[in-house]
Write a structure and sequence with these properties.
Shape: globular
Low-confidence stretches: 212-223
Largest sheet: 6 strands, mixed
Distance between the termini: 48 Å
Oligomer: single chain
Structural class: alpha/beta
Number of strands: 8
Order of helices and strands: HEEHHEHEEEHEEH
Length: 240
């Protein structure tokens, strides 16, 4: 909760919508990842699909957390970009993350994907001081009130890892930009102050990768269904 007192995902959602608005005629794909990568939105020219997906981004269900790697999406990104390679189009990648590696495994490299990247940005969220994360069971939109506590009994603090983010930017051959609440984001190609330079929006494929600590809204739905079934079975036994 160090995005002006709110979860970092609030900033990610806002920036995704801003970028889509600045690439109105492009094709898009969205990959989300935590301990594994998921193709959230396959290649499409429907910008509303990307915005809708962005608005559903949620933190992981805490009880199912097993650590996340900021490199988990590397293989999927390479596959998607190579499969959709078109020399008449430009491939632009936006990578949203706090850069924090919570998996015990070494971070995977994005160098293979970087071979296909024409432009883009690595966008960093969070602060060096860090902030706590709320528990989420899947029953609410965001956290339920209590903060995640570590094995030592202390509240866990998540911090930005700009070293990881800068290394990923180098592997993807793009720039790294630290994001802060209230600061405008101008990626519109061809405009004054554009962060990604001259790239025609009429020939762009935009690939988004979002570190979301494991969103999977459907898991929350399944948990609700499971709870309903258990309650129903208990009620039925009581009646019998």
């Amino acid at each position: 909760e160090d995005w002006d007192g709110q979860p970092r995902l609030v900033g990610v959602r806002e920036d995704i919508e801003t970028i889509v608005e600045q690439f109105p005629t492009s094709r898009y794909a969205m990959i989300t990842f935590d301990s594994e990568a998921i193709m959230r939105v396959p290649i499409t020219s429907d910008s509303t699909a990307v915005i809708s997906a962005a608005r559903t981004l949620r933190q992981e269900i805490t009880s199912g957390s097993s650590g996340s790697s900021v490199g988990t999406a590397s293989a999927m990104l390479s596959e998607v970009m190579s499969a959709n390679f078109d020399e008449t189009k430009k491939a632009v990648v936006f990578f949203f993350s706090d850069g924090e590696q919570t998996s015990a495994q070494p971070r995977e490299s994005y160098e293979a994907a970087g071979l296909f990247v024409d432009a883009g940005l690595v966008l960093g969220y969070g602060t060096e001081e860090g902030a706590p994360m709320r528990i989420r069971s899947g029953y609410s939109e965001e956290g339920e009130g209590n903060y995640i506590v570590g094995a030592d009994g202390e509240v866990g603090i998540s911090t930005i890892d700009e070293v990881n983010l800068q290394q990923i930017a180098e592997e993807l051959n793009v720039e790294y930009v630290k994001r802060n609440p209230g600061s405008p984001l101008n990626v519109a190609p061809g405009g004054d102050g554009s962060l990604i330079g001259e790239v025609s929006t009429n020939s762009v494929s935009v690939f988004g990768l979002y570190w979301v600590f494991a969103l999977l809204v459907i898991v929350g739905m399944l948990l609700l269904l499971a709870d309903f079934i258990v309650r129903a079975m208990r009620t039925r036994r009581a009646v019998l």
